[in-house]
Specification:
Elements lengths: L3 E2 L5 E2 L7 H9 L8 H14 L4 H14 L5 H4 L4 H8 L8 H15 L4 H8 L5 E2 L13 H13 L6 H10 L3 E2 L8 H7 L3
Parallel strand pairs: 3-4
Antiparallel strand pairs: 1-2
Helix pairs in contact: 2-3, 2-6, 2-9, 8-9
């Protein structure tokens, strides 16, 4: 599937469909280079929560996640006690998966051990997004040699739900990879947003 022309006259990557929330996410967030460490941590945890689910499911619950997980502040999440885990397991506004919730706590602790979370990611891509200029969704791989390497490293550091496919999706979302299709109206816009 190549980019799809929508009623508003804009071509978009076909994965966002016609759901207004998904289209807005595609147009305003997906692929925009993210440099804030806390925001990167949030996106990594949410991508981990997505495992086995569709991203739109997590996107619809994102505001609930932000409330439930104290604004994704790693220094708070790292100190969650069993009572907080149990409370989260009862929260219908999030995905109630114990492994994913406990994984977020372990990942927060691993995050706090790192010197600069943002620099970790941007150093991995040489300081600017990797842009492959794909013409169709089927050309985009589910993972790469780089995400395999990062996944292995993060697991050794104690992060959870950071397999190479999750890492690839995370890197796309955070603009470390610019995987908007060449014919998508966001491709060139996102390309210009990268810091040089």
């Amino acid at each position: 599937m190549s980019a799809v022309l929508h009623e508003d006259g804009k071509c978009r990557c076909g994965w966002c469909g016609t759901d207004p929330l998904y289209m807005r996410y595609h147009d305003e967030e997906w692929g925009v280079p993210e440099y804030d460490s806390r925001a990167l941590f949030e996106k990594l945890v949410l991508d981990g929560a997505q495992a086995g689910l569709s991203w739109i499911t997590i996107l619809r619950k994102r505001d609930n996640y932000r409330k439930a997980f104290d604004g994704f502040k790693p220094e708070i999440i790292a100190k969650y006690k069993p009572a907080k885990i149990e409370a989260l397991m009862q929260d219908v506004g999030i995905v109630r998966n114990r492994s994913k919730i406990e994984g977020a706590v372990l990942s927060a602790n691993a995050y706090l051990e790192m010197k600069d979370f943002s620099a970790y990611w941007w150093d991995a891509v040489g300081g600017e997004p990797i842009c492959e200029n794909y013409g169709a969704l089927k050309q985009i791989p589910p993972k790469s040699a780089l995400t395999e390497k990062i996944s292995k490293d993060l697991k050794q550091r104690g992060f959870k739900f950071v397999g190479p496919t999750i890492i690839y999706a995370f890197m796309q979302a955070c603009g470390l990879y610019n995987d908007h299709l060449e014919t998508c109206h966001r491709h060139d816009v996102v390309k210009k947003l990268a810091r040089r």
